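Most newcomers find our protein records easier to grasp once they have seen one. To make this concrete, we reproduce a full record directly below:

…
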Amino acid sequence: MPETLVVALGGNAITRPGEPGTIPQQFEHTAETLHHLKPLFHSDCRLVITHGNGPQIGNILIRVEEGERRVPRLPLDTCVSDSQGGMGYMIQRIACEMFRREGIRRSAATIITQVLVSENDPDLMHPTKPIGPFYNRQEFCQIQRERPHWMMQEIDAGRWRRVVASPRPLRILEKEAIAALVDAGVVVIACGGGGIPVAWEGDRLVGVEGVIDKDHASSLLARDLRAQKLIIVTSVEQAAVRFGRPDQQWLKTITVRQARAYLEAGEFPSGSMGPKIEAGIDFVESGGTECIITSTEHVARAVRGEAGTHIVAS
C-alpha cells in the first residue's frame, strides 16, 4: 500500500514577507513551491496538501474594512472560505500544469473544508493567531489610532501583527470525501487556512469568528486519513533549541518525549514553532510514523531522511 503524506504549506509559501502579494507574485511562488514537491508527485505516494492563509486572510479583512461603506461586511468564516477557494485554485492550477508538462498521471482537486469547533472554546475570548502583514512601530501606532478595535501583538522586537481568535479543531466535516479522493489517487487540497470554523446550533451549522491553526488542523486530518507522514513546511530547514543564541542547536531527530520537554521549557514560542511541535506530537502519539518539519526547498530530501527535523515515537 502506498504511503499517505499530508504536506502542510505555510501561507508564506504563496505570499512572501515584504512583497505586495499581487496575484502574479502568488502564482509565481506557488509554482516555486510545487516545483520542490515534484519528486513527491512523481512517486507513488498518496498526497494531501493543506495550507495556511495568514497573509491572505489579513489582506481580505483589510479589503472588507475598506469597502464596508459600499458593500456588506463579510464575517471571518466567509473570509476563510474565500481564501480556501482562491488559494486552492492557485495550487490546483499550477499542479495541473505541472502534471501535464511532466507527464504525471495525477489530477488535483480542492475541497472547501469545514472544521467543527466549540463555541465555548476559551481561545475565542483570547486572540492569539497572527494574520496579515508585519507592521513597524510607526505603522503600529497609526493602526492603534485608526483601528482601535484591532488586537495587535508584538511578534518580535519592533514588529507587530494583527491577531484573531484561534479555536481548537475538533472534527473535519468533509473527511470522508477527502479520504475517498485520496484513495482514488487524487492530489487533494484541503483544510485551507486551517479550515472554516463552524459549530452546531441544534441541527444548524453556524460560522464562528476565528481562524484555526493550520498545523493543528493538518495533524487532525493526517490522523483521520491514517497518514504515515505529516510534513510541516516552514521557513527554516530544521527546528532549533536556544534559537538565535550562540549555543543554538539544530534538531534532526527527536522523540515525542524530547519534543514535549522542549515545548514545556519554552523553547518553541506559541507564535511560531510551538503549534508545529504540538501538531507533530499529537500526530505521532496517535499512530503516525513521523512528523517532519522543514523548509519548502528541502521537502523531498526530508522525506528521504536527509534533512529536516523528524519527530518520532521513540
